[in-house]
Design brief:
It is built from four helices and no strands. By secondary structure, the chain is mainly alpha-helical. It has one domain.
């Protein structure tokens, strides 16, 4: 399944499958979500830590650094909180929201698109990920 980690969600067929009820799709979604949210929390903690250090000893920093710390410190803390809230969202709620967003995306080119029923429920386990798209050749 780790070979799925490198697949691009810019590939609509893969993105559609990734939102399916296939057990491997669920595991990959959880891995991607967990990795993304962990990176967001770590970045936010690093930025908030820097802002706290600048604020703790403002005379050691330029006015620009102090202004930046005053601006991005609270934003980083808010980002970390959002990541915690997103992580608490159950997968079924997350998938329902993502499927609705994916349907909206697909309807730009396919007005009647509906998320495929065969990719939902237990029967989705019968549908492996689509083959990887070949990158388009450049000029």
């Amino acid at each position: 399944m780790s070979d799925l980690h490198h697949r691009s969600t810019l590939d609509d067929a893969f993105c559609e499958w990734l939102l399916s009820d296939h057990p491997d799709a669920k595991a990959e979604r959880e891995w991607r979500r967990g990795t993304s949210l962990r990176q967001l929390r770590e970045s936010a903690a690093d930025i908030a830590g820097w802002a706290d250090r600048v604020s703790a000893d403002p005379r050691q920093h330029t006015p620009m650094a102090r202004d930046l710390a005053d601006t991005i410190g609270p934003m980083a803390k808010a980002s970390a909180l959002r990541a915690e809230i997103e992580e608490a969202e159950p997968d079924d709620a997350y998938v329902a929201r993502q499927r609705a967003d994916f349907e909206s995306h697909m309807r730009w080119d396919h007005p009647d698109y509906r998320y495929p029923a065969h990719l939902t429920g237990p029967s989705a386990a019968s549908y492996p990920p689509p083959p990887e798209c070949e990158p388009e050749a450049g000029p």
